[in-house]
Amino acid sequence: MRKHLYRKLIDGILLQRIDHMLFYDRRLQRVIKKGKQIVRTLSSNDDYKVLNGVFSGLKYPSLTISEAALVPKIIGSYEYQLQPWFRKIIETNYTDIIDVGSAEGYYAVGLATKMPNTTVHCYDINEKDINFSKQMAEINNVRNMTWNTYCDDKTLMNFQRKGKTLIICDCEGFELQLFTDQVIQHCKDVDMLIELHDVVNPIISSTLLSRFQSTHTFSVVNNSNVHYDGITGVETLSAKEKEFAMCEHRGGLFKNTYMEWVFLTPKNAA
């Protein structure tokens, strides 16, 4: 009986992997295509603005990006559970924000528009995303940004901080290589917002938080049971379109893989 259960489990995993290999790209393209159709419905005259949240009014220059979460970003429901943290960030007098995995610039340009006295440093290995974020900065009349490619532990060790600094990190499972014990000690006076990718490596969150235990206090949120209170501007969508638009499609069409984020503040903060 036990052997039979193991066999079923292994078969299930293999089928999931085969399904991912054969159909993931097709589903992703369907999400992107449908998402752009909905954005066009919500926008007028190719004026693609974020409708809700702390980045309300942020303009997208075009829909030329391949971004599965484009619709929730335009709606302003994207990673909605982080909104209180971003309000706190905007109210803090940071001199520098380092955005590791800045993608097309939703957070980086969004923060730069709200924090004109802060320099936002984008790091992303995708050249197309970097170029798109430059276009987004231009259309939003933002000048307080820099653009960079690869970021590793040496980058953080060598970064010349001018004052109070925040690191935002969404590096798809590279967290353990990036935040070494040496980096954490070097950045013990730095605030951090990190997306934890246990879906890539199940020990990331436990290992990383144990490393930060002596230098930072932290709080963790996840993407389960998110309440989208106050979201407006989607009244023209059908119920099915709203369901599609509010889903971030993490893991594929109508899938939302469980994710966690941690906000860390230095223990030695005054």
Characteristics of this structure?
10 helices, Rossmann fold, 270 residues
Helix content: 40-55%
What string, H for helix and E for strand, traces the elements in order?
Answer: HEEHHEHEHEHEHHEHEHE
How far the N terminus sits from the C terminus, by CA atoms, comes to: 60 Å
Indicate the CATH architecture. 3-Layer(aba) Sandwich
How would you describe this protein?
This protein has 270 residues and is of the alpha/beta class. It has a single domain, classed as Vaccinia Virus protein VP39 (Rossmann fold, 3-Layer(aba) Sandwich), CATH 3.40.50.150. The protein has ten helices and nine strands. The strands form two sheets. Strands 5-4-3-6-7-9-8 form a seven-stranded mixed sheet, with helices on both faces. It has a two-stranded antiparallel ribbon with strand order 1-2. The chain is globular. The termini are far apart.
Topology overview:
Elements: H1 2-42, E1 48-49, E2 59-60, H2 70-75, H3 83-90, E3 96-100, H4 106-114, E4 119-123, H5 127-139, E5 145-148, H6 153-158, E6 165-169, H7 175-178, H8 181-186, E7 191-196, H9 204-212, E8 216-222, H10 239-246, E9 260-266
Parallel strand pairs: 3-4, 3-6, 4-5, 6-7
Antiparallel strand pairs: 1-2, 7-9, 8-9
Short description:
The protein is an alpha/beta fold and 270 residues long.
